[in-house]
Amino acid sequence: MSNQPAVLTLTDLNAAEPCCTPIAEQRIPAETAAVLAPAFKALGDPVRLQLMSMIASANGGEICVCDLTPAFELSGPTISHHLKTLREAGLVDADRRGTWVYYRARPAVLRQLAALLAVEAAA
Fold first, then answer.
1. Which letter does DSSP use for residue 74 in this model?
2. Inter-CA distances, 94 with 52, 102, 118, Å
3. Cα(22)–Cα(27) distance, integer angstroms
4. Tens digits of per-residue pLDDT, 6-26?
5. How far apart (Å, rounded) are the C-alpha atoms in residues 27 and 92?
6. Mean pLDDT, to the nearest integer, of 21-41?
7. Which of 11, 42, 60, 102 could be joined to 89 by an S-S link, Cβ 3.0–4.6 Å?
8. Span 24-37, average pLDDT
9. What CA–CA distance (Å, rounded) separates 92 from 78?
10. DSSP type of residue 27
11. From residue 43, how far is each of 2, 28, 91, 116 by CA, in Å?
12. Residue 48 to residue 55: CA distance in whole angstroms
């Protein structure tokens, strides 16, 4: 049995408990940075950032891939690749319903990323 602390994963993030101190207040531990970096990297692509925005702002909290694809001048497989990247980064969940896949944002993860970047206004 190892005495090592459990490794943080995006699936462990809970909106009620901050994952870490904001970067403006304290250096982020290397282990935490390694877990969170893929999410930020996924959002670093303009198409994925737009997709994330469409998913997070969708009425009813979810959106069909059939509504995402026409918004871009990209092929279906390219959109699927970007959506897979968002899923693998832990930013969205997906459910297949028949031939369509529906995506929804993971608000707790987005809140954790936002909290990490929070900067309090100077008094």
1. S
2. 13, 5, 28
3. 8
4. 445 555 555 566 677 888 888
5. 27
6. 90
7. 42
8. 89
9. 17
10. P
11. 34, 19, 9, 15
12. 10
Alpha-carbon distance of 64 to 104, in angstroms, equals 9
Q: Report pLDDT for 120.
A: 74
100 forms bridges with which residues in the sheet?
A: 97
Q: Looking at this protein, which amino acid is placed at residue 38? A: P
Unique residue bearing structure tokens 């925005």 = 53
Task: Detail the DSSP E strand segments found in 39-121.
Answer: 63-64, 92-97, 100-105
Greatest distance between any 2 Cα atoms in the chain:
54
Considering only CA atoms, which of 102, 112, 87 is closest in space to residue 12?
Answer: 112
C-alpha to C-alpha distance for 47 and 13, rounded to whole angstroms: 25
In a 3-state reduction of DSSP, which class is residue 93? strand
Tokens of 52: 């994330």
Q: What percent of the chain has pLDDT over 90?
A: 60
